[in-house]
Structure formats: structure tokens, C-alpha cells
Amino acid sequence: MDAPQYPPKPSPGDAVAVLSPSAGLPGVFPVPFELGLRRLSDHFGLVPVEYPTTRRPDASPRERADDLHAAFADPAVKAVFASIGGDDQIRVLRHLDRDLLRACPKPFFGFSDNTNLLVALWNLGIVGYYGGSVMLHLGRPVRMDPYTADSLRAALFTSGPRTLTVPDRITTAAGDWADPATFTREPDTEPATPWTWHNATRRVQGPTWGGNLEILSWLMMADREIQQPSAYDGCVLFLETSEEMPSAAEVYRVLRNMGERGLLQRFGALLMGRAKAWHFDKRYDARERAAYRADQRQAVLRALGEYAPDLMAVFDIDFGHTEPQLVVPVGGTATVDGPARQVTLTY
């Protein structure tokens, strides 16, 4: 399979669609959603356009797919944003008009459950963007994180290579969106630890593929969107885990099964996101957060040791469910330079 192609990018002043292909949470939590819409306009100069199911928690998979089709088919809309993730986008896949999507390629921004659509676009030869959540990152209390905003602006409006950096600080805990006080103060943060490198002996370049580990495991269980192992030869795999905070054992099992399927061995390098290590039902302190991330790292290394012992890996890059959030082009070129300890993404 040829590497996916970058669709045309928007410019300030353009209209962009804002959809809910997974969950209509803007209808439940309007405050972060409307804050995100204002920042799309005020910070990025874009004109957000909502669709019928954007604020509907009860929208059917067919209705959500219809909104996607309408947004991609509209020549006035220059990019498409998911409001947030969820857990039901896999049921939208069967309703996608793939010929329409292929004929009208546009940048799609989303993460978490939007792994479903991003992988489907990858299979159609279209680069998408893992990141840019309207509610979570654009709708961050008080202000967008500057590191997030800088990455999103680069993904939206620029082309060419961009070398990644480690942020100064990362968010540790979030407020309850149902509590108005949440939006009066910035989330708690702590200093960011540096990346951890494994087998950093060479330089690898290839198109990216991946997303949220749990969602990819669902796609494999449902036998949806996963190609033959040879389709991923030389690609750079990127993975991260969600706010559900899967155990180290579960992370190992998913990667083990990818190895058994013959997938894990095909990639040229692995980029592993910094694991989200706090949620409302797991309010970990600093020691517990560090231990959770260390356990996950060891689980990944165990799977690599068994199935891809020579694979180069970089841990704790800030994409996915992290805050701040780097936007990763899905199907775009990544260069992982072990000796130089550098990761470069091409937007």
C-alpha cells in the first residue's frame, strides 16, 4: 500500500465542521464545548459549523455517519473536528460511504475513539490527525495549553517537518465539567519527565499508524479496518492509553496479541504516549502516577522483548489523552532518530 496523502489544509477564515461521531457529549456538557468553539474562532480564525447530531447523545450510528458525509462533501468546509471521543464509533464504520470520503479528502482531527475513523481514513489513503479535541483540549479551563495550541496550529496550517520537544509541565488532575468552578482555575500540573529511549541505535523513517491501544484492540476483535501485516512494513507505530487506565497486564496482552497476529514485528519504530495516570475513580498521587507509568512501560518492553526485540521505542511522548497534547499526523511521515534522540513529524 502507498503511503497516505495529505489533504489540502484550511486557512484562517475557513469554515470547519464540528461533529460528534462517537458521543454527543456537547449536549451534556455545553460549557467546555462552547469554550472550544470560541477558541477555534478566536485563536485560530476558523468558523465552526455544527451538524444535526453534534449535541445529540441519542444519535444513531447512521445519523452520525450522515453528518460525516455531509461535512466531507461540502466544498465550503475545509476541515473536520470531532467534539470528543467516546466508545461507540465502531458502529459508525459500517455506514461510511468510503467512495465519498476518498473523493473529498479533508483533514480530520480527533483522538481516542476517533481512532476508528482515523484508521479507516488511513486505509483510504488519507492522512488524518490524532488530536485537537474541541471539548478537552480546546475547551481547557481558563486557557489552552500553549504547547497544545502550538502543535494544533502547526498541524492545521503548516506543512513540512517539525521536531518534537518535551513540555515543561503536564496536567495531573482535571475538574468535573458539571461543576462551574472547574472553569475558574487551571488544572493542576507537575514537571514533565523526559522521554525514555529503547534500542536507540538507528534512524527510522516511515508513515505513522496507530492511535488508542484499547480502540485498536476492539478493531482487532471485531475484525474491522486491520490490514494484513505486510501493509505496515516500515511504518512507525504510535500508541497511547485512555483515562480508563488499563492495567499493565492488559496492555501487555493487547501487544502480545498484536505479536501473535504478526503485526508488532512489522513496524520500524514505536512511539508510546505518556500514560494518563489520574482519573476520578483513580486519584493517584505523584508516587502512584510514576509507578503506573513505569509498570506500563515494563509491560510494553516485555511484549517487545518477546515479539520485536530489535524494535526501537520512545516512551512518554505527550500525545493522546495527555495534557498538553501533541497532534500526530496519522499516515504522515515520522522520523525517529535514535542516536540524535530526536522525533520529527511531518505535518
UniProtKB/TrEMBL annotation:
It comes from the Bacteria. Residues 205-336 form the LD-carboxypeptidase C-terminal domain. One of its GO terms (molecular function) is carboxypeptidase activity. Keywords: Carboxypeptidase, Hydrolase, Protease. Residues 16-131 form the LD-carboxypeptidase N-terminal domain. Belongs to the peptidase S66 family. This is LD-carboxypeptidase. It comes from Actinomadura logoneensis. The lineage of its organism: Bacteria, Bacillati, Actinomycetota, Actinomycetes, Streptosporangiales.
